[in-house]
Amino acid sequence: MRFAVIGQKVVPESLLKSPSPTLPISKISSIPTPQQNLSFHFNPEIQAVLQGKQLLMDDLPFSLEEIQEHYENGWLTYRNGIEFHGKTVLCQRCGNSDSSWFASFPCARCGESCIYCRRCLIMGRVSACTPLIGWRDPDADGRTNIAILSSMKLLQWTGSLSDGQREASGRVEQAVISGQELLVWAVCGAGKTEILFKGIEQALARGQRVCIATPRTDVVLELTPRLKAVFPEIPVASLYGGSEDRHNHAPLTISTTHQLFRFYHAFDTLIVDEVDAFPFSVDETLRHAVKNARKPESTVIYLTATPSRSWQRECRLGKRAYVTIPARFHRHPLPVPELIWCGNWGKQLEREKLPDNVIRWVKIRLDAGKQALVFAPKIELMKKILTRLRKLHPDIESVYAEDPDRKEKVMKMRNKEIPLLLTTTILERGVTFPDIDVAVIGAEAEIFTESALVQIAGRAGRSASHPTGDVTFFHYGRTEEMLRAKRVIEEMNREATKRCLLD
Amino acid sequence: MNLFSPKRCLICHGEIEAEISWRSIFLNRTKEEAVCRKCESMLLPIEGEKCTVCGRELDLSFCEGSLCLDCIRWEKDESWRGCLEKNISLYHYNDFMKEVIARFKFRGDYCLASVFAGKLRSVLKGIPGDYIVPIPLSAERLYERGFNQSEALIVGAGLKPVPLLARIHSEKQSKKTRRDRIHLPQVFRLESQEKLTGKNIVLVDDIYTTGSTLRHAARILKEAGADKVSSLTIAR
């Protein structure tokens, strides 16, 4: 779209009353924000759709005239969808600045060659002439009625917390009250969700908006009913690709990290689950999403079992506020991985063979009837391993990300119909089987980072009835990542002992 | 070729591994690929015996001689007979293609036009034509999408689109049945004063569904004196 700058405002070309020079919006370096007219009767429907969001003109079921009127009265903001900083181009919605994700086209809206972001194209095209539209509340907080909420008992939960959880829960509550950032470093199986309840209650009671963002849709689907059950009085919006709650700005939102791109200065408390998980750690743009979605003064709680090395360092140096839950809720130590050299397994695999110690490991589990989860670095290699292992037991299966039968196989594994499941890193987190041993074949591969290996080790010994399990990394040369993973796990066990969190 | 940033597939954004051959080393000529091999393999070219009018792969239960039953129906109707000389469609409209075209046209991922550039160019050069004409969009639709996909395809192939037509109707084609589409009053009008007498024209569109859009466009061009009107679409 082309806009003209007239006095203290911008006006879209099609609404100009007299001819004025116009520019694509991105060429207007600072878009003026008219002073807010408090006696203006705004349209509450526009408010409902836009509050806390950053949307495109095409997303809004309102006329351009009405939108412009709200802007001119200071109730609506226009921001540039694409910004240019010297040679770099930045998508303001998704934070993309990687030139391989931009392209340009002869645009019918601005009549110029217009750069657009391909990274977030799926949410509607943001190009150099696209304004991002947001809402402006008088005191910029848009809170729900505080008096009503704080007099109610919001949290309906009767469960109890372990000692480790209780401490973390207290810290989360404090962070919410004081509006700070906090990293919760909780081992796999510590029980992360429950420690959030008190903090969320505090936030809701203050009329704040809360969001839990997680990388995976299945987690959104699993958390939504749980949170609805413990906060029965609170409307909960559940957002993922294709969900229907898109236009609800509820007090409590559970969202995939991707859906955060639609939000702008929306949340007082933002809880980011699995900060280390794909795609968050690789994706600068999701960091941008968190920055955009939180209000300027807000609380951010990061949850992870495997913080990045730089975050770990910041924790040690006292530069980052954090709390650990070093023990599982069942009070047993984490299984420590055993590192076993298995020679050039890749070469053996070419002859449809596997190292003897790997075969022995598998046989022992098959004979004892103990289920096992075995990780391989690549799909092609995994298929070869499967051929070899099926000679030992015909029911052994493999699963990978695009496997059409993925869900079925995981279900079969749960029902103990599969003695051993081979997998790529897709099952490294989230999925839990109660009583399994875990192995990695080719742990030296690049894909097995410290955090991947910690997550993999975290699959064993999950349930209270079977709190132990063996974890073995078969490798052809130790890597720093393997050693670090082992060290982090041992440190957590040591800390748990020291804090009397183990039996 | 940039040594530092790998070339990426326009469809899946995966890296394209450069094929290194003696030719590329000595002549510094690498084949410029727009998509990776995996995506390429999902685009299925229309091959084998085709209907001589609409270019679809012939299905024995759905043809008579070298014409498919749809084209027989068209050719039976006096007002449509011979309107469209011949259509060529490059690929099958399979699920993968559906997704690629939806992203290109509805999501507005303009640069996907380059996926088809090479093949489009070589096929277009083989069709005798004085003008390459894009199927037009209504002003409303053009604003919504930001560009005309047919024009994008022609430009992407490095050729010059000649906008001889404009659209009168603005409703969406995809919401109509075949019957509706065929019995529609004229949807296009002639935009240009250009003399078309004796000219050969090639229409370009993204998809051939029932063939009615292309035939409507072809008929108006024929009425304006065009000698032959053929068409090319990415998929059918």
TrEMBL record, chain A:
<dbReference type="GO" id="GO:0043138">
    <property type="term" value="F:3'-5' DNA helicase activity"/>
</dbReference>
<dbReference type="InterPro" id="IPR006935">
    <property type="entry name" value="Helicase/UvrB_N"/>
</dbReference>
<dbReference type="GO" id="GO:0016787">
    <property type="term" value="F:hydrolase activity"/>
</dbReference>
<keyword id="KW-0547">Nucleotide-binding</keyword>
<keyword id="KW-0378">Hydrolase</keyword>
<dbReference type="GO" id="GO:0006302">
    <property type="term" value="P:double-strand break repair"/>
</dbReference>
<dbReference type="Pfam" id="PF04851">
    <property type="entry name" value="ResIII"/>
</dbReference>
<dbReference type="GO" id="GO:0005524">
    <property type="term" value="F:ATP binding"/>
</dbReference>
<keyword id="KW-0238">DNA-binding</keyword>
<dbReference type="GO" id="GO:0003677">
    <property type="term" value="F:DNA binding"/>
</dbReference>
<feature type="domain" description="Helicase ATP-binding">
    <location>
        <begin position="173"/>
        <end position="325"/>
    </location>
</feature>
<dbReference type="InterPro" id="IPR001650">
    <property type="entry name" value="Helicase_C-like"/>
</dbReference>
<dbReference type="InterPro" id="IPR014001">
    <property type="entry name" value="Helicase_ATP-bd"/>
</dbReference>
<dbReference type="Pfam" id="PF00271">
    <property type="entry name" value="Helicase_C"/>
</dbReference>
<protein>
    <submittedName>
        <fullName>DNA/RNA helicase</fullName>
    </submittedName>
</protein>
<dbReference type="GO" id="GO:0006270">
    <property type="term" value="P:DNA replication initiation"/>
</dbReference>
<keyword id="KW-0067">ATP-binding</keyword>
<dbReference type="GO" id="GO:0006310">
    <property type="term" value="P:DNA recombination"/>
</dbReference>
<dbReference type="InterPro" id="IPR027417">
    <property type="entry name" value="P-loop_NTPase"/>
</dbReference>
<keyword id="KW-0347">Helicase</keyword>
<feature type="domain" description="Helicase C-terminal">
    <location>
        <begin position="358"/>
        <end position="503"/>
    </location>
</feature>
TrEMBL record, chain B:
<protein>
    <submittedName>
        <fullName>ComF family protein</fullName>
    </submittedName>
</protein>
<dbReference type="Pfam" id="PF00156">
    <property type="entry name" value="Pribosyltran"/>
</dbReference>
<dbReference type="InterPro" id="IPR000836">
    <property type="entry name" value="PRTase_dom"/>
</dbReference>
<comment type="similarity">
    <text>Belongs to the ComF/GntX family.</text>
</comment>
<dbReference type="InterPro" id="IPR029057">
    <property type="entry name" value="PRTase-like"/>
</dbReference>
<feature type="domain" description="Phosphoribosyltransferase">
    <location>
        <begin position="183"/>
        <end position="235"/>
    </location>
</feature>
<dbReference type="InterPro" id="IPR051910">
    <property type="entry name" value="ComF/GntX_DNA_util-trans"/>
</dbReference>
